[in-house]
Design a protein that fits this description.
With about 725 residues, this protein is mainly beta. Helices cover about 5% and strands about 45% of the residues. Among the domains are: about 115-260, no CATH class; about 600-715, no CATH class. It has three helices and 45 strands. It is globular, with a radius of gyration of 28 Å. This is Beta-propeller domain-containing protein.
Length: about 725
């Protein structure tokens, strides 16, 4: 029988417009001259739409509200995404909400209430340290060469006497002498004690005010291969404020929005702000006073009647209080293997905001789960984990940013999770391929007495809508594991740092000593470990300095498992590696801060870099130490030392790491009772020519670059 393509297309278009029904389709591919189209043909078995508005049409088959549906457990799929119909999206979301409600019933007997790489630059001042060039990342300070914007909180003010911490922006101006002077404190929100992140684009300061999310993966044990990670998404709303700073002394809010959902991460690329958020619908219609069948059925009936718009996130203009949908159902995706028995109870939204015209924005959503993002100039990748066949896999969805509109393009999955540290540093896009390093926690090994690790590097290539692995390490040609092994060949070292630089990858594993692995990716189909170096301690952050030099920041730790090992001084460590010969990486020199730590181990934005024209790279790193003093030999008084260490790296023919000294926080000019406590993880710095500005809390300590210890502050 001959079926004309145009006729079938017309039939399908008519079916799609009928919102009371959905159809179960089989995939058939039709070919006509110079035409290839994949059409979804129906057996015309109609499924009932739950909650897309309903209808009084008497021809509509009645919704079966006399049965509690038997739904599959909530899960994350590794399948490619498809754009969902309004029915599919509504059904998947409501199934997830109802399944989560049922899971709570089985878990609790009592009633429960629902509760709501540093870019190269020709400028003479440092900017936010970021992973990819031209992909800006949010931070608590931004600087344009004259004006410094600090995300401040009144808890960190000197003589703060309130129980509440008020967020504000402290605006400082640098004069011709290099002095920093305050010009305005901008109060922009009534939301207190939340995290603040800033972007500066042209004359617009973007402020993100949010409750942070927390992610943790299970500690290695015999269940680690199958246990899902824990993720806390913070509050179900965040705030975006756009401030006109064309005249910073008169800075004022020009747009402010409250966005429903928890902020996961963000980036600014080519003047557009990309926000990735997770919204959990706050459906309050479940009666939790009883868990008998009648009550559960009534709850199902209540949920089925809810309009979809009541379950999706809104964006509200705080000036006008006008609200609208953040994303519409016609721009939402679900996994292609989703059945009518599946569901997921949260909505991931990717929103693009034009910083020059914030009313020009677009969003798409995914009815699945993610934990974080990685972004290149042309693509944004989301990642999450899924348990399949007793193995944890990382699922990656790719979205194209090169066109004028957001567009989903592909999905891939690889064995393992992203472990400790900044997950985005385990990714790298290079020549349109995606590289990723993962870790698998293997079951506890009785004879070895520990749970081994399996570390792998994958190269993924987009093939239609799939991110397909084209290579991995270890492989048949190069089977050497990543990480040191015991006598049984089991890896007992976890990954502490990963960094990619063009056709090379650098991986640090650690248990008692630090093997630095250099991976050769010149032939992307045959990655191999080219060389390795073992030194005491570990690097938690790696920073490519040049083609021949690599910077490592972490801890110096004594190897207690080797009784004959040379004794080392424990503390924060900065190491310069010579990687000119990738088969034989070497230590150029290092600096250790005894009994100290640096926030740069987990937050690379605490580092500041500035390249000079003479082959010297300047950089700063915050360091925090707790020291004790005896009091008449009967007790000890502990005090904290916060400092900003200054370094120069000579990148010429005789490379070297040189420590110049530290700018230290000093409150001696005020009473000790008035000095605020500020966590070292908030420390930042700006290097501008020969001026150094150490930002600790809300204040600045200013010194000249060559004499950092001779500072002036707090300013």
């Amino acid at each position: 029988m001959t079926i004309r393509l145009a006729k079938i297309t017309d039939i399908l278009d008519r079916l799609i417009k009928i919102k009371k029904y959905t159809t179960t389709f089989n995939l058939i591919t039709f070919k006509e001259p110079k035409v290839k189209r994949s059409l979804l043909l129906s057996s015309l078995t109609l499924g009932i739409l739950i909650g897309c508005g309903g209808s009084n049409n008497t021809d509509t088959p009645p919704i079966d509200e006399q049965r509690i549906p038997k739904l599959n457990d909530i899960k994350v799929s590794a399948a490619p995404l498809i754009k969902a119909s309004e029915f599919q999206f509504s059904q998947n979301l409501k199934n997830g909400l109802f399944k989560r409600y049922q899971a709570r019933l089985s878990s609790y007997d009592a009633p429960e209430n629902d509760a709501t790489a540093s870019p190269s630059t020709s400028k003479d001042f440092s900017q936010t340290n970021q992973q990819e060039q031209n992909v800006d990342e949010a931070d608590r300070i931004k600087y344009d060469g004259e004006f410094l914007f600090i995300a401040a909180n009144s808890f960190h003010d000197i003589d703060h006497d309130s129980n509440e911490g008020e967020n504000y922006i402290r605006i400082m101006q640098r004069n011709e002498k290099g002095e920093m002077n305050p010009i305005q404190n901008l109060t922009y929100s009534d939301v207190h004690s939340s995290d603040q992140q800033l972007y500066l684009h042209d004359n617009t300061l973007a402020i993100l005010n949010f409750s942070p999310s927390y992610f943790s993966f299970p500690i290695a044990n015999d269940m680690a291969a199958t246990v899902e990670p824990f993720f806390y998404y913070g509050d179900n709303e965040f705030e975006l404020s756009l401030v006109d700073v064309s005249q910073p002394s008169q800075a004022a809010i020009k747009h402010q929005f409250k966005i429903e959902g928890g902020l996961i991460d963000s980036r600014v690329i080519d003047g557009s702000l990309y926000l990735v958020s997770n919204y959990h619908p706050n459906f309050t219609g479940f009666d939790t006073s009883n868990n008998d069948e009648a009550t559960v059925l009534a709850n199902y009936q209540n949920l089925s009647k809810v309009q979809l718009a009541e379950l999706t996130p809104n964006i509200t203009n705080t000036a006008t209080q006008d609200s609208e949908e953040l994303v519409t159902p016609d721009n939402c995706y679900i996994s292609s293997d989703t059945s009518d028995k599946d569901g997921f109870d949260s909505i991931i939204t990717i929103t693009k905001v034009n910083l020059s015209n914030p009313e020009q924005r677009e969003s798409l959503c995914i009815n699945t789960n993610i934990y974080g993002i990685y972004a290149s100039e042309n693509a944004l990748y989301t990642h999450g984990t899924v348990s399949q066949d007793d193995t944890v896999k990382t699922v990656i969805h790719k979205f194209d940013l090169a066109s004028d509109t957001l567009e989903y393009t592909a999905t891939g999955a690889v064995e393992g999770h992203l472990g400790r540290g900044p997950e985005n540093l385990r990714f790298s896009e290079f020549n349109n391929d995606l590289r990723i390093v993962t870790t698998t926690n293997l079951p506890f090994n009785e004879s070895a007495g520990f749970s081994p690790f399996k570390h792998q590097l994958f190269v993924l290539q987009q093939q239609e809508n799939s991110l397909a692995p084209i290579a991995k390490l270890p492989n048949d040609t190069y089977p050497t594991p990543i990480g040191k092994t015991n006598e049984q060949g089991l890896v007992d070292e976890n990954i502490y740092a990963v960094r990619f630089s063009e056709d090379r990858a650098f991986i640090v594993t650690f248990r008692q000593i630090d093997p630095l692995y250099v991976v050769d990716l010149a032939d992307k189909t045959k990655p191999k470990i080219a060389g390795a170096l073992e030194i005491p301690g570990y690097s938690a952050y790696l920073h490519p300095v040049s083609e021949n030099l690599l910077l490592g920041i972490g801890q110096n730790i004594q190897d207690w498992q080797a009784p004959n090992a040379q004794e080392v001084e424990n503390g924060a460590k900065v190491t310069l590696f010579d990687i000119s010969d990738i088969t034989n990486p070497k230590v150029v020199n290092e600096k250790v801060f005894a009994n100290a730590y640096t926030p740069a181990e987990w937050d690379y934005k605490s580092l500041s870099f500035l390249a000079t024209g003479s082959g010297v790279l300047r950089f700063t790193m915050p360091v925090e130490t707790w020291q004790s003093q005896s009091d008449n030999n009967t007790s000890y008084l502990w005090h904290r030392v916060s400092e900003l260490a200054s370094f120069e790296i000579d990148t010429t023919e005789a490379p070297a790491l040189n420590y110049l000294g530290s700018s230290k926080v000093d409150y001696s000019s005020i009473s000790s009772e008035s000095a605020p406590y500020v966590w070292g993880g908030l420390d930042r710095a700006v290097i501008h020519s020969d001026d150094l500005y150490y930002i600790h809390g809300n204040y600045i300590w200013h010194s000249l670059w060559q004499t950092p210890s001779d500072n002036k502050g707090p300013l």
